[in-house]
Design a protein that fits this description.
Helix content is 11%, strand content 33%. By secondary structure, the protein is mainly β.
Length: 317
């Protein structure tokens, strides 16, 4: 009987957790496989988001439909309480055996004037044995970095290591708003062409990308990276601090929630439910009491106890 009650309680918790990612009442909650929580909202100008910066365009010409940030037109892979992951872009330069350039595409992405910035969870990565790349960007001040990736044979490299031999990485600063990448080659790949005809550069989630020596001969590397290695974007509400936002008429954090200043250095806030409460802190009525008290024991914990837990009897006054 107790296990049944516990299972029922877990169902209630699951329902409550789902509520934390609820869309605004009357608004579409999913686009394809992506659940879109308020303050984001599906539709352009539908009043389903907290402001137009958080509108999600659900493109139904795809099957299943695909979600895009309406203001930047980047495809969204995931939305969490502080980050968005978007589909990547990869720069490439490919050569013939004699060093003639056969294909090139640079990359540049701008989040200027939006409430978004590139997360420091990303790294600028170059893959190739005859390649150097520079990344130029702005985070309120100019930023320039780059790295050199060289090798003479695939035996020089080890899968999983991106330390300058076949693959190199460099960090990007927190709060980066825009970047462009220039990719070049030392010898147009003439000395490494049999096993490495192309060089690549991209900004992406450092925890997802894993270098493999087979990347050099994998003709699908560029598309595979675009699909599988997202760019991590930090998001916040507005550009005021919590202390400033609390004085405004449009303070985003509702009841039983706490305001958290964005740590990007660009201003803006996020809202979290207070301890012991759950729900969507941006959506009326705000956060509500948790279905399960924080200190409640699970059945497994109860079984470890040497005594049977008895119900508490109120003391007489």
């Amino acid at each position: 009987m107790f296990n049944f009650l516990w299972l029922s309680l877990l169902v209630l918790v699951a329902v409550s957790a789902a509520a934390a990612s609820t869309a605004k009442p009357g608004c579409q909650s999913k686009c394809g496989d992506l659940t879109v929580p308020y303050p984001f909202g599906i539709g352009i100008g539908t009043n389903c988001s907290i402001s137009s910066w958080y509108d999600i365009n659900c493109n139904t010409t795809f099957n299943p439909p695909k979600p895009f940030l309406a203001t930047t037109n980047h495809e969204i892979i995931d939305i969490s309480d502080k980050e968005i992951r978007i589909k990547n872009s990869v720069a490439a330069r490919c050569y013939t055996e004699t060093g003639k350039l056969t294909r090139q595409n640079p990359i540049s992405i701008s989040l200027t004037v939006t409430p978004y910035s590139f997360s420091e969870k990303n790294k600028f990565t170059v893959v190739g044995c005859d390649d150097l790349a520079v990344i130029i960007g702005s985070s309120g001040r100019n930023f320039t970095s780059g790295c050199l990736s060289v090798c003479s044979d695939t035996e020089d490299m080890n899968d999983g290591f991106c330390t300058g031999i076949g693959c190199c990485q460099t960090p990007i600063p927190k709060g980066l708003k825009t970047f462009a990448s220039a990719l070049g080659s030392l010898n147009n790949h003439t000395r490494v062409w049999p096993f490495d005809p192309c060089g690549y550069a991209f900004v992406g989630d450092q925890d997802v990308f894993q270098f493999r020596t087979s990347d050099f001969t994998d003709q699908s590397f560029q598309n595979r990276t675009i699909e599988n290695v997202p760019i991590v974007i930090d998001w916040a509400i507005g550009n005021l601090s919590c202390s400033e936002a609390k004085k405004s008429n449009e303070f985003a954090c509702l009841q039983k929630s706490v305001c958290v200043d964005s740590d990007t250095g660009l201003g803006g806030i996020r809202c979290n439910c207070s301890t012991g409460y759950e729900g969507n802190p941006y959506l009326s009525p705000g956060c509500t009491a948790s279905a399960v008290p924080a200190n409640m024991d699970t059945p497994a914990m109860e079984q470890k106890k040497d005594v049977v837990a008895l119900p508490r009897i109120p003391s007489s006054q």
